[in-house]
Design goal:
2 copies of one chain form a homodimer.
Chain A: H1 2-7, H2 14-21, H3 25-31, H4 35-59, H5 65-80, H6 84-92, H7 99-126, H8 134-146, H9 148-151, H10 160-175
């Protein structure tokens, strides 16, 4: 991950990766048949973690859509804080994947999007969320939270928990939760 | 732009670029001293357009922060619709720039961020926006709008203007504008 972030996937050799990991090139090839497989493993495992964690957070939150959205955004933003490397690689190296790698990534991204949409749609159905545009709202909330990876480190004034709480509050506002219901 | 999108900056040669443009390699070098300069020109000119257009939209909108935010988001989302190539290159090829290119891009990105923050902060001051977190709100609104570039084409069911109107509404919700003030 360090090598891909510093130089980009294309410019990184298996030798660089082996060197950075303190391994021989042969032993890297023992675990991964190609550089593409390493990239795929990084992207797929980080997406899989995120689908698993955010889904669990929603399921643990009870039946209130407001509580579910709180839990979902807290989990999502928590995962993106300190995950600059995965975020950078995920945003910039999709072209490095082959067909099967792209399919795996797309499937997981759609699964992640459905978790957001499911919660927003649930809140609209129960009347907890006033938003007239649940699809765009779900996408917007996911985008706001993911963008935290691009600014969190620059801005050393807030703790992890403070950032999470602010993003939760913003997301509730974007969903159109009544202000008195959010506290 | 086509070549960088299809193959990535690293894998594209000046010969590919010349071929795609129906020019000779020599005439490309007459305009750009290196491939990096072409990348820089793509990124800087698209950021400059966006700073100029969004600033003009805000200044034309009168003194109401709600009207300013509407105009800003409409301009921002309009720029991101159908700009998948610039968005993809901007997100993935920053590593291809040299020091001076990065500085130019960072300066423009900060200028763009200040436009968003200025409008949100103005609305908080006038009491039009209830958000308790103007910085995160400004960043979140920018991120939601920019993400439209990643999904607009997939989703052929909405017109450009419908998407813009939905993103405007979502942004007003995120800023905490009273629902009756937004119509």
């Amino acid at each position: 991950m360090e090598q891909f972030c510093a130089q980009g996937f294309h410019a990184t050799s298996m030798r660089d990766i082996a060197g950075g990991a303190g391994m021989t090139v042969a032993s890297i090839y023992h675990h991964f048949s190609s550089k593409q497989r390493i990239l795929e493993e990084i992207m797929v495992s980080s997406l899989r973690d995120s689908v698993t964690s955010t889904r669990a957070a929603v399921l643990d939150a009870g039946s209130s859509a407001t509580a579910q959205l709180r839990a979902l955004v807290a989990s999502w933003v928590g995962l993106h804080i300190g995950r600059q490397p995965e975020a950078l690689i995920g945003a910039s190296e999709l072209r490095g994947l082959d067909e099967s790698g792209r399919t795996a990534v797309d499937t997981l991204r759609r699964e992640q999007a459905r978790i957001f949409y499911g919660v927003v749609e649930h809140g609209v159905r129960t009347g907890e969320f006033r938003t007239a545009f649940p699809r765009e709202c779900a996408r917007g909330i996911a985008a706001m939270g993911a963008a935290v990876a691009s600014w969190y480190e620059d801005d050393g004034t807030l703790s992890r928990d403070e950032v999470i709480e602010r993003m939760v509050q913003l997301s509730l506002d974007a969903a159109g939760v009544e202000p008195d219901a959010t506290n």
